[in-house]
Amino acid sequence: MQIKIGDTTFEIVKGDITKQEVDAIVNAANPRLTPGGGVSGAIHRAAGKELWEECKKLGGCKTGEAKITRGYKLKAKYVIHTVGPVYKGSIEDEKLLASCYKNSLKLALEHNIKSIAFPAISTGVYGYPMEEAAKVAIKTIIDFLKENEGLELVRLVLYNDKAYEIHKKSDGGNYKRDGIMEDFDSLIMKNGCTMCYMEEITEK
Question: Which of 93, 193, 107 lies closest to 143 in space, CA to CA?
Fold first, then answer.
């Protein structure tokens, strides 16, 4: 799926987050920023031990916040580390997950990053249901791009067919926000966006 919002392209693709040729990739990190497993482990393995050496100096990261390091052996110049919530089924989970995306995007703009790729934050061992996480991710990204300029590409990278299909079919926020029910199509119409579906794209 690809959406154009102003000068920014927002894509949802299936692929390997560690192989994205973008300015920055986002690491779904743990609070201590240790390599761990899942996405975090894969990113640390691809980046090399230098990434962990830099992470040691950052003093950890709180849930919903974001910190930045170099990308070392990755194709991406930077890694933005954000800590997603462990799912408990509360409204606070949604707020913290949205903060992960929002704070990562803010940090990208602060460092003049033009292209950024996200994994599906908190949907692994942290247990956030994929359908709910997809709505939060898509809506938060669209809301941010409606209000901020400077990014050329924002990409959600899903690791398997199931995750990709869930995100592709997500309405991007069919839930209450400020007392207003909005769906993905209405957001596109309001912003004069154009949308097309892509089964998969070749990594650039």
Answer: 193
